[in-house]
Specification:
It holds the Pfam family Pro_isomerase. 10% of the residues lie in helices and 25% in strands. By secondary structure, the protein is mainly beta. The chain has one domain: Cyclophilin, CATH 2.40.100.10. It has a ten-stranded antiparallel sheet. It has a two-stranded antiparallel sheet with strand order 1-2. 48% of the residues are buried. About 13% of the residues have low confidence.
């Protein structure tokens, strides 16, 4: 089972990257930083506000350093990133105002080619959880970048109509969010929401998927989950249409 997961349905916990146990289950450039925090110790966090913290017990699935951690983290403007997959492009728009530390990390991983030649390892097709999860070079749902950082959680999501308790919120179609393994354990895994999903607001939203990207995502979702002898019609697992991020880049 993936380390990063999202809860499935209303009671099942899924895996992250999402932090959903893996979900588990969404362009003006910002000013350049003026001051950069001091370099971290081998085991200590960066000195800036994002406090990217090495995880020596969970080494990087692919070698990569810690992100820059400027004292004045860019917190305005949007950045376009394209995931070029074997099934079509998935353009994204990252929102620095919504989650500055998350955007800073995602761009660092993109520049470092951390996401190139990786697969999206998980597709969920539950009525209340419809996401594609990516971002683990190991392809297992267990891998990350060798560091973690704090949550930047949404506070204004509408309640999910399927949850009478009001605890779960709507992660709407088109949302781009981080998977995690619990509070403040964001790393490299992320999920793409292709249909409105009901989740506790425990996953950082840091951007959105454009309409061309949603068309690609819909194609992947339509292929369903890879069947197994034990479950010929699974709702959660590797996508039947193998989805490989060939390159991720700003664009």
């Amino acid at each position: 089972m993936s380390r990063y997961r999202l809860p499935a349905l209303l009671v099942i916990t899924l895996a992250v990257g999402l932090g959903l146990a893996a979900p588990a289950a969404a362009s003006a450039s910002a000013p350049s930083p003026t001051t950069v925090a001091s370099s971290p110790s081998p085991t200590g966090p960066t000195a800036g506000p994002c406090a990217y913290t090495p995880t020596p017990d969970e080494p990087a699935a692919r070698p990569v350093g810690l992100p820059p951690d400027p004292r004045h983290t860019p917190a305005r403007g949007k950045v376009r990133v394209v995931l070029r997959t074997n099934l079509g492009a998935i353009p994204l728009v990252l929102d620095r105002a919504e989650a500055p530390c998350t955007v800073q990390s995602f761009l660092h991983l993109t520049r470092s080619r951390f996401y190139d030649r990786t697969i999206c390892h998980r597709l969920t097709t539950y009525p209340t959880l419809s996401v594609l999860q990516c971002g683990d070079p190991s392809g297992t749902g267990e891998g990350g970048p060798g560091y973690r950082y704090r949550d930047e959680l949404p506070t204004d999501l509408p309640p999910a109509p399927t949850d009478p308790t009001g605890a779960r919120k709507v992660y709407a179609r088109g949302v781009l969010a981080m998977a995690n393994a619990g509070p403040d354990t964001n790393g490299s895994q992320f999920f793409l929401v292709y249909a409105n999903s009901a989740l506790r607001p425990n996953y950082t939203i840091f951007g959105e998927i454009t309409q061309p990207g949603l068309r690609t995502l819909d194609r992947i979702a339509a292929g369903g989950v890879t069947p197994t002898p034990e479950d010929p019609a699974p709702l959660d697992g590797p996508p039947a249409l193998r989805t490989e991020i060939r390159v991720a880049h700003r664009g």
